[in-house]
Amino acid sequence: MSRLSWTTFAAPSRFEPLAAAAIPWLWAVSILTAVAGLYQGFIIAPSDFQQGQAYRIIFIHVPAAWMSMVLYLVMAFWAGIGWAFNIRLASMLSRAIAPTGAMFTFIALWTGALWGKPTWGTWWVWDARLTSELILLFLYLGYIALVEAIDDPRRGDHAGALLALVGAVNVPIIYFSVTWWNTLHQGSTISMTAAPKMAATMLTALLLMTLSFWAYAFAVVFTRTRAIVVERERGAQWVTALTQPAKE
After folding, report:
1. Which residues of 199-213 are buried (b: 16+ CB within 10 A; e: fewer)?
2. DSSP 3-state assignment of 194?
3. How many CB atoms lie within 10 A of CB 49?
4. Nearest to 42 by CA among 64, 62, 58
5. CA dihedral defined by 43, 47, 48, 54, rounded to 10 degrees?
6. CA 70 to CA 248: how far, in whole Å?
7. What is the pTM of this model?
8. More confident of the two residues 205 and 3
9. Range from 17-31, 94-108, 194-208 carrying the lowest mean pLDDT
């Protein structure tokens, strides 16, 4: 048996069966944790003494905001790996991540507006964090438009990688904006260096929804990557065998 390494599944022909096997399990984890998280957050968790019931939007807003930033960094990482080492699958993963990252960014902005109306009295303010999160959405959309506008997939991958890597500087700006500037947006509720500032039931709901969003992201990205692999590698013997119906 050959030893596993970080390059073992770099070949699309090896990645495809692994993704196919993982996707059903990822969907199951995503659905189960979403149901548990929503029940915990909207039914069990108590209301907030300052914001009342309106605070419950955080169980969707906060995990979506986390995912929007993390997925952009992951997208930029794989785009850079594909560009630097000419690894086809890395560039395919980067393309597959972009629509999901854009979706989570839109959800974060939309739920933030829903939260801001009862909290701040307005749907939108040009707050440092909100503005930088909006820029993140434009970066996602710009990356998607750029790679799709170039007919040659490899040239599109390289151009997209440059944009993704340059745009990655916006992620720490989003994260530290509430520390660097005097903004309306509240500070972090969960920190790696301090105890959580919320009840255990609220924290449990938040973590369950985060796990659900992670599993969803993996499931959708793997599904989209498989489609890109089949499109890019069509003509290869293993793709032909995969797409042809089995003979009885």
Report:
1. eeebbbbbbbbbbbb
2. strand
3. 7
4. 58
5. 70
6. 45
7. 0.88
8. 205
9. 194-208
